[in-house]
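stage 2 :: seqdesign
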């Protein structure tokens, strides 16, 4: 299903679907803005490997394993206030298992391609998206988002990373 969509397009799909899941689950997305601003920041990075570092810092177990901001060593992409917000959200969310699982699979998918110029992308990345992320989200979401808008991130561009476009989340919001 995701064969013609680049690594960043697949990641964007996963982030968008996670956002949709939290919305359906009744979470206040405004409270989660600190997380989604970080996750949607990929156009700010020239390389996917650079983006993957911020993604990894966002994963719940990376935030929750530390008591406080200073015990985590150097946080490159978070302020102390952002860290505290994420820690509180993760500790209090009834959806933490879904958040953790989806983000961990997306991290795994990104890491398959770190520092490579595979053309076409390794089958492992496609397997993660097609066999894990998509079916899991399809089971969890009432209305699974279409992959069509994510085809703008072509596998044929930028050595399979896809060309970064400004991603406008509003474009994908469903009309209620």
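stage 2 :: out
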């Amino acid at each position: 299903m995701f064969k013609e969509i680049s690594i960043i397009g697949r990641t964007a799909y996963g982030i968008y679907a996670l956002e949709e899941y939290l919305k359906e689950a009744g979470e206040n997305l405004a409270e989660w803005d600190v997380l989604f601003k970080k996750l949607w920041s990929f156009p700010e990075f020239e390389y996917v490997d650079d983006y993957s570092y911020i993604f990894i810092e966002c994963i719940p177990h990376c935030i929750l394993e530390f008591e406080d901001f200073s015990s985590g060593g150097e946080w490159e992409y978070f302020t102390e206030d952002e860290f505290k917000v994420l820690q509180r959200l993760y500790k209090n969310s009834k959806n933490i298992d879904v958040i953790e699982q989806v983000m961990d699979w997306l991290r795994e998918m990104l890491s398959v391609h770190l520092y490579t110029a595979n053309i076409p992308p390794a089958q492992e990345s496609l397997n993660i998206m097609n066999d894990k992320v998509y079916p899991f989200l399809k089971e969890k979401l009432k209305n699974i988002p279409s992959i069509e808008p994510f085809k703008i991130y072509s596998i044929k561009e930028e050595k399979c990373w896809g060309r970064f476009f400004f991603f406008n989340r509003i474009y994908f919001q469903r009309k209620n």
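stage 3 :: structure notes
- Residues 7-24 form the longest helix (18 residues).
- Residues 76 and 124 are 29 Å apart (CA to CA).
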